[in-house]
Specification:
The chain has about 425 residues and is an alpha/beta fold. About 20% of the residues lie in helices and about 30% in strands. It has ten helices and 29 strands. Strands 1, 4, 5, 6, 8, 9, 10, 11 and 12 form a nine-stranded mixed beta sheet that branches. Strands 17, 18, 20, 21, 23, 25, 27, 28 and 29 form a nine-stranded mixed beta sheet that branches. The protein has a five-stranded parallel beta sheet with strand order 14-19-22-24-26, with no helix packed on it. Strand 9 and strand 10 form a beta hairpin. The chain is globular, with a radius of gyration of 23 Å.
């Protein structure tokens, strides 16, 4: 294969399999009713839309999504927004809940088991390659380039990796590689991560992205399923086994990261905590954000609701509908209120004399008159009472709401209902 030209992209012979069953417990109440991949992000999308859009934009036309915990809102979103792939064009989109297909009592035990339980569905499509993806990260990546490296290297598995400062890699699975980026050991959350040859201050952290030849992966999944004591997990079992007994290759994210002319660095975020989630959303309000959502060459697909435009009304002193350095989605009415460095999802009603500063407002919220909200995340459908003040008294905030380590206040309707 190396040195030859292939007319058809490898992505056309690949299936993307998105692991979207995660609880996302560090997002606290944001994941009480939805899985982490279903959490809203960026004004109109969900987190999972990034992995799915990457697959689609890379040319992959067979996609499966494995769901498990609190999956209803995720499945509904997938059905509404991703049902345009057509079997008559050799395309497919399968939602694969943990449905006890292998055993009537067995849910997905781990990430590898979430693929193993659907082997028959995968093999019926006959893809030559499998691209295994985590469904809970924000990034833009061309998987075709990773597929090409996988084929050209002759590896049994290719692992997507981030270059991170070495001592920041202690919370990741870390790849210890040689000078050719062949993985010589895989270490889960090491206290002293190994550096990269020639770059001793950096380490290669796993992104939870794997490329396999399908036949090889199926053999490994069957072997692992028959192994007593396995956690049925890619990071804990499958990848370490291949590192020891086969050829595992690292693929550096910088080689396939998609960047517009406005994006200076390779962008990848795990928005798995309230602070990280708030920061990644608020960063989008910058004049030139690190993540360019306006890149028409690599669109982020999602369920696009048919809604009227955003509307700003009233122009009196102290009661002026305005937004500065903010993103405001469709069907929002900013009625005599002021927004600064805020991100507001679809369907918000922000009433007179209220002010939002560095606020992330999820869909269908109502902000009552005279409310002042600073550095907050407001969950879907919350009705903020008139005159509520948040973000000015840390002690009072912590008594009424969820306050993160970084001082971000999470507000849900249940919390509002408990107010005196």
């Amino acid at each position: 294969m190396e040195g030859s030209r292939r007319v058809q992209p490898l992505a056309r012979d690949a299936m993307a399999y998105v692991l979207a069953g995660g609880r996302g417990s560090r997002l606290k109440e944001l994941t009480d009713r939805r899985a982490k991949p279903a959490v809203y992000f960026g004004g109109k999308t969900r987190i999972i839309d990034f992995a799915l859009s990457n697959a689609l934009n890379s040319g992959i036309r067979r996609i499966g999504v494995a769901t498990q915990y609190k999956a209803h809102s995720l499945i509904r979103h997938l059905q509404r927004g991703w049902n345009f792939l057509r079997p008559e064009r050799n395309e497919s989109f399968d939602i694969l809940p943990a449905s006890q297909r292998v055993s009537e009592t067995q849910w997905y035990e781990g990430t590898a088991d979430a693929v193993f339980q659907n082997i028959d569905i995968i093999e019926a499509y006959g893809p030559e390659y499998m691209v295994i993806l985590a469904g809970d990260h924000i990034y833009k990546m061309d998987y075709e380039l990773m597929l090409q490296q996988h084929v050209n290297s002759g590896a049994n598995v290719t692992v997507g990796c981030l270059e991170v400062p070495r001592m920041e890699a202690t919370g990741f699975g870390v790849m210890h590689v040689d000078e050719t980026d062949r993985i010589i050991s895989f270490i889960e959350k090491p206290a002293d991560p190994p550096g990269i040859p020639g770059q001793p201050d950096l380490a290669l952290a796993s992104m939870g992205i794997y490329v396999f030849n399908t036949a090889f992966l199926m053999d490994q999944l069957r072997r692992d399923a028959a192994t007593d004591g396995s956690a049925r997990d890619f990071g804990k079992d499958i990848i370490p086994y291949i590192v020891e007994h086969g050829h595992a290759q690292a693929h550096r994210f910088a080689q396939s990261c998609v960047r517009s002319s406005f994006e200076r660095e390779a962008y990848w975020r795990d928005v798995g905590t309230i602070d990280a989630y708030w920061e990644a959303n608020i960063d989008l309000t910058d004049v030139t954000p690190e993540l360019d959502l306006y890149d028409r060459e690599w669109p982020i697909w999602t369920y696009a609701e048919i809604k009227p435009p955003a509307k700003f009304v009233h122009d009196d002193e102290g009661r002026r509908g305005s937004a500065v350095s903010s993103l405001v989605a469709g069907d929002c009415i900013v009625s005599g209120a002021s927004l600064r460095r805020s991100l507001v999802f679809t369907g918000a009603r922000i009433n007179s004399f209220s002010s939002l500063n560095e606020a992330v407002v999820l869909p269908d919220c109502t902000i009552g008159r005279g409310a002042r909200l600073n550095r907050v995340v407001i969950d879907h459908g919350v009705k903020i009472p008139e005159g509520l003040v948040v973000g000015e008294d840390a002690v009072q905030d912590s008594e009424r709401f969820r306050v993160s380590e970084g001082g971000i206040v999470l507000i849900t309707q249940d919390m509002i209902n408990r107010l005196d």
